[in-house]
Amino acid sequence: MLFSISRIRIRIRAAAFFAALSLVAAAAFAVPGADELLVLLDKAQTFESSYANATMTIVDRFGTRRTEFKVWSRGKDDTFMEFTSAAERGQKILRNAKELYLFFPDAEEVTRLQGSALRQGMAGSDISYEDMTGNRNRAQNYTAVILGTEQLEGRSVFHLDLKAKSRTVAYARQEAWIDAADYLPSLIKFYDLSGKLLKEMTFSGRLVVDGYPFNTRFLVRDMLKAGTSTEMAFRDLTVNQSLPKNIFSLDNLKW
Amino acid sequence: MKLSRIAWLNIRRNRRRSFLSALAMLVVSAALVFAFSLLEGMKAEMARNVKDWTWGEIKIQHAQFEKNRLLNPLHLNVADADALVSRLAALPETEAATPRTAFSVIIQKDERRFQAQGIGVDLARETAYSRLPSFVSAGRLPEAGTREAAVGIGLARKLGLGVGDKFTFMTMTRNRSMYGVTLRISGLMDFPVAALNSLAFVLPIDRARSFLQLDGAALEIVAKVKPGLDPADVAEAWNAELVPLGLSAVSWTRSSVVYYVVSYIGVIFNILAAMFILLGSTVVINTTMMVVFERRAEIGMLGALGMRADELVRLFLLEAVFISSLGATAGALIGCGISAFFARGGLDLTAFMGGINVEFPTLLFPALRAGTVLGSLAMTVVISGLASLLPSWSAARIEPVDALRG
After folding, report:
1. Of the candidates B61, B78, B60, which has an alpha carbon nearest to the alpha carbon of residue B235?
2. Alpha helices, DSSP H only, in B96-152?
3. Residues 6+ apart with CB under 8 A from B237
């Protein structure tokens, strides 16, 4: 009798152990929800601070040209860019939570970009000022639905459909393919309100810097322009290093 | 007694009526002569503005530029433009040549945005080509190498700026990159083209080249040929050398756009001329018919005295021709005088066209042509004569007794 009671206890303990193990395993391999994926996507692209040198290669019907700049960013909102290539030398861009400012060496006034001007191609590229500086707030601006999981370039990705919460954002709808391992974007398609495909951004050149995964290249195609593309390549990346004081200030634009 | 003598006596017999009839012809004739000289002047001024400003007598630009104009293709330019201008200026057939670079800008002022056009010019050569300094209405032209501009008076008014003020604009560079520039206003321009007054500012071409990243290039070279030469022939001859360089020279007479504009304006002028003729004819016909109808009793009396119907018609025709000839001649002389007066200083429409963005002359110089003066004269006399026929025929047909009864 005693023997059978102890066997029952052992069985109960074993069952409890396997149940707990199953819960842990389930938690470990659970598929995040769509909104959670957006948070992870933003998080994968947002750092306390970052710095990089960048090269933009612009191809259009008139030929190919390269533009170089340095870019500093802080959190979700702040970005500062300074062009170093000869044709654009001295031009600067500052983006904060509310505004986007441009500085040109021949202008005595700082230019505040607003409205449709934000959608102008930066340095004549397919990347708008808004694309370059304001893509780290998707969780706040979009609602998402997971359309499935797919294989893209040999990697497992989540396929998400994003719809804008308001009309203040640049794109009414986005389709995003997010890497299932590090939540970096692999491919994003941008649509207008009528569902017309406007742009396509393809990411590549995955690199781990200071323990953080990065896409060091992305290719943008403006689907409304024939035969154009812009490739952005980042190098000399640093993450969470201290940045120059007041770098994200208007004073720094004029300096 | 001859009919012409009777007609002349009739005219002198009732001088007040004759004077009023002649006065009507005088007014019509003077108005026609002035209106036609104004239209002729307008056509000539438009042609001059096209040659001086909107196209050039001959325009040299990159062969692909016009096709891509809407894309703002600054890279489709005339490289080493100054050297080419010097070569062209040295040719025996060239009167003047100068490089130009026109570019679109957005000027932001007090939360408002204004579209405008900058024109980079070679200040020394432009003086010979377009008499640029003569259009400065306040201040002075910008100096080469400086961040200065002379702004069209209409644009300055829109911006609320004057000489000494500064403005900042955004434009696109050769690399299709947005760029901002601040310029100080050195002077105000009263261009002879309304669209330029309300849209344009001129700046030194070296400064424009610097921020547009044009490196010695210009978007176009405009040239004028010596009097008596056909610009189309000269352009064709130049193209033998220019086409292999990827450039093309087009005479203003061969530009489809300019030709279309000039043709279109020509049609409008013809419609205006027809309206003037119609209005003038109405006055002439009305005056002549009133005079004849007023004299029905007199016609009846002449019929009762034995004058035949055809003689009556001829009598009134002669009277109408005599009166209208006198009135129309005096009117034509007055019209010539008014036209000559305005031809000296020009008829300044700047105040009326300040906010109008059209390629229309702001200063009109009436141009007298013998053909239009004689045509106006003849038209007044012929219409007056024809207008007298109908009531004369009708009056000559009625019985003398009925006519005398009134």
Report:
1. B60
2. 123-130
3. none
d(CA B246, CA B29): 55
pLDDT digits (tens, 9 = 90+) for B145-200: 899 999 999 999 999 999 999 999 999 888 778 899 999 999 999 988 888 999 99
Which two structure tokens, joined as six digits, stand for A6?
């102890």
Task: Choose, out of B70, B74, B175, the residue to mutate when testing the contact with A (most A CBs < 10 Å).
Answer: B175
The pair of three-digit structure tokens given for residue B248, joined into one six-digit string: 């093309």
Listed residue (A127, A94, A88, A87) closest to A110, CA to CA = A94
A104 touches chain B (CB under 8 A): yes
Query: Any idea what the Cα angle at residue B189 is, between residues B52 and B36, rounded to 5°?
Result: 55
Task: Give the three-state DSSP class for B174.
Answer: coil
C-alpha dihedral (A17, A19, A22, A23), degrees to nearest 10: -110
User: Could you tell me if A8 lies within 8 Å of chain B, comparing CB atoms?
Assistant: no
- Model pTM? 0.71
Distance of CA A96 to the CA centre of its chain: 16
What are the residues facing A221 on neighbouring strands?
A: A200
Yes or no: say if A110 and A103 are a contact pair by the CB < 8 Å rule.
yes
Region for residue A185 given its phi and psi (left: phi exceeds 0; alpha: psi -120 to 50; beta: otherwise): beta
Strands (E), A84-228: 92-95, 100-103, 111-113, 142-152, 155-164, 173-179, 185-191, 197-209, 212-222
Report the alpha-carbon angle A146-A217-A64, nearest 5.
Answer: 125
The CA–CA distances, whole Å, from A49 to A46, A232, A240, B228, B322 equal 8, 20, 5, 72, 98
A34 CB burial (10 A radius; 0-12, 13-18, 19+)? middle
Task: Please give the pLDDT value at position B67.
Answer: 87
B46, containing H or E segment: helix B15-49
For B380-394, the pLDDT digits (tens) are: 888 878 877 877 777
**Total Cβ atoms within 10 A of residue A78:** 18
B363 CA to chain A: closest CA distance, Å?
35
B251-273 burial code (b ≥16 CB/10 A, e <16):
bbbebeebeebbeebeeebeeeb
A251 touches chain B (CB under 8 A): no
Classify B113 as helix, strand or coil. strand
| B179 interaction partners in chain A (CB closer than 8 Å) | 91, 104, 106
Chain CA centroid to CA B369, Å? 14
